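Hey,
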Amino acid sequence: MNDSTILYYTLSGESRSEHVIKGSRFVATAIPVASKEDVLVHIERIRRNYPTAAHYCYAYRIGIGGMEYRTWDDGEPAGSAGKPILFVIQKYRLSDVLVVVVRYVGNAKLGLGMLARAYASVTEKVLATAERVPVVRYVSVRIFCAYEDVDAVIGILHHYALDFEAEYRDAVEFTARIRESALEEFSAELSTATGTRAGFIVLEQS
């Protein structure tokens, strides 16, 4: 896959890792999310799952470029938890992702630097083992063809399209989403399979 068509990466599912330093236990959970509402639901769920933890720190990024984001230190020294978590999320070029780190405090006191490293380390650990999924750029297209070419066009769409719909009129119109990096190849195959009778126009990118 051409890296230029990858908007960002997200996670295929939930992952969890732990890190212990000087008696303090850090448990990181990385979760794919689609909205702030998702974030709140998952944070509340993790609070219920770890009811005796001292801190529930997190960071999330949502959308293209991770333009919507937030960090939360939950009583830890300012900048020692949420920001290190966010930095690692950014390092892995992830978005639509929430990482929550719960901490059980040990007997030894951790300084600011050690805390920041601990939150970053456990986030690194959970994201390094999580399965990343590329979110790619698609273009919406409208394809026009004659009835005699419908089977050929459908065969090509099954190969190239994320999804498609058909409207049967005097001619047949398909609306489909094609990965941007495959558009040129799709165009050539469509032309060859239909003897240049079928054509398409690009509607929008998504």
